[in-house]
Design goal:
- The chain is of the alpha/beta class and about 325 residues long.
- The N terminus is likely disordered.
- It is globular and about 50 Å long.
- It has a single domain, classed as Alpha-Beta Barrel (TIM Barrel), CATH 3.20.20.70.
Amino acid sequence: MPVKGVSRVGGLGTAAVLSGAVATAAVLTSCGTTNSSAPEQPSRAAPSESPSRAAPSKSPRTSKRPTPSASASRSTPGTVQLPPLHADFDYQIGGAYPPPTGVRIVSRDRTAAPAPGLYNICYVNAFQAQPDERASWPADLLLRDADGEVVVDEDWGEALLDIGTAAKRARVAARVNRWIDGCATKGFDAVEPDNYDSYTRSDDLLTANDATAFITLLSRHAHARRLAIAQKNTVELAGLRKRTGLDFAIAEECAEYDECGEYAQAFADRVIVIEYSDSGLRKARSGFAGRLSIVRRDVDVSTPGSSDYVRKVR
């Protein structure tokens, strides 16, 4: 989700980001798929989960995985299906509804069911705890400052998860990987772990190394479940996407912040762009209309019938 009222952080310089702690992950092949031979991370039991941010209230229905299209097919076992290039996209993490005509890719909350016949992305809030589920997280997995106070993303009221050590990363990943398992069971094609950039809001308690090490655990598990995995925002780490095993990008407001070109270069144009203003949409289309998947949504990602609902592609 976009950061409300806060300047974006960028430009860390990828050469200084990692100290070698990130393991080599899956790479894209020339046929448009990515290998998923990395070992699955062990899952551990977790408390019952509440819906992700702005999730629909109805219980999800389980659906079968849609038949892949020719432009996004699996060629052999052990590979994952990538989203089709430059395809019409709808962002439905605020609630599922019938996709508009022409849509081929849709992202929905992990509590929802996939849209039959489309490429489906499963949204999970992987790096922060939403207000309604904060109490279900072990207290020591919530990031705390020197005074013992929980560090909170003030724009969304979400506590940051503590991924500052290998042991804590493994424990947080065990829970998030259970959500990823649920995405795979329902028939989603990919997973969208949100708040990769939470380290930039951690008051320097977390680092880019911590974030990349954690996302690598998730990408290994997603690939083991034959799911592709997106990099959500965080343009300063886009150059590391092969090392972290990330397959495509979902970039909010990249035109607004002049970042779409960096994502396009890093991910070979396999980029989904979400703008939240008409000016951002015009700017995205002026530079990338023939290359990237671009949509304009309202900032609350609301459903049709809501007074706030906005969805435009031109």
